[in-house]
Amino acid sequence: EANSWAAMQRKLGPDHAQRQRDRWDRYRAGTLDREGFLVEQIADLRGQESRLLDEVVAEVEYHDGVAAACDALRAAGVRLAIVSAGITALTGRVAADLGMDLHRANTIHIADGLFTGEGEIAVPPGSKARVFAETVEALGVEAEDVVAVGDSPGDIDMFQVAGLGVAFCPVNAQTARAADVIIDTADMRRLVPLVLGGAHR
Predict the structure, then answer these.
(1) Residues 64, 188: contact at Cβ < 8 Å?
(2) For 24-57, how does the pLDDT look when each residue is reduced to its tens digit (9 = 90+)?
(3) Where are the domains of the chain?
(4) Angle CA 135–124–177, to nearest 5
(5) Is 3 exposed, middle or buried (0-12, 13-18, 19+ CB in 10 A)?
(6) Which helix (H) or strand (E) covers residue 173, if one does?
(7) What angle do CA 55, 8, 25 make, to 5 degrees?
(8) What is the mean pLDDT of the chain?
(9) Domain 4-196, what fold?
(10) Bridge partners, 44 (sequence order)
(11) What is the C-alpha separation between 121 and 9, in angstroms, rounded?
(12) pLDDT confidence of 113, banded at 50, 70, 90?
């Protein structure tokens, strides 16, 4: 699945998916801002069973070599973090599985097994450069020493402020063009020599 929101929409059915497409149209047209986009998206979940999110989290699949890559990087003293416009329930699972130091995403509030329609918006669309800077500061490192890895246009602003931007199996040519390095095979172990070799310094 492309991301946690897309997986949720798939489970919620075509009506929710259409409303999501409408939100994207208004966002691209400039009639809906970044935070408003997520406020509406979360509000649209009100009353739905939270087990849907549990299912999305349970179904997460990893690229080949991701655990080995994270193990090798941690062993070398590299700090690892996730900055995602997705959902903390998913990024928290990934961070725990892979031994990440930090994860930043958006939280959906739940009460009595149902989504309340409210949440905490930490990473609205188009905000990854800002959240990247906050994450770098929290980790106590310099941006020029950071390798940013992403696959979509939403990651481009991170590529621009990191020491090295890596497009990992990019979804389109725009993302590939914005990166310093392109990895076009789905094996995360290819990241290890890039990071440890200091290609960004």
Answers:
(1) yes
(2) 899 899 999 888 988 999 999 999 999 999 999 9
(3) 4-196
(4) 75
(5) middle
(6) helix 173-178
(7) 170
(8) 92
(9) Rossmann fold (3.40.50)
(10) none
(11) 18
(12) very high
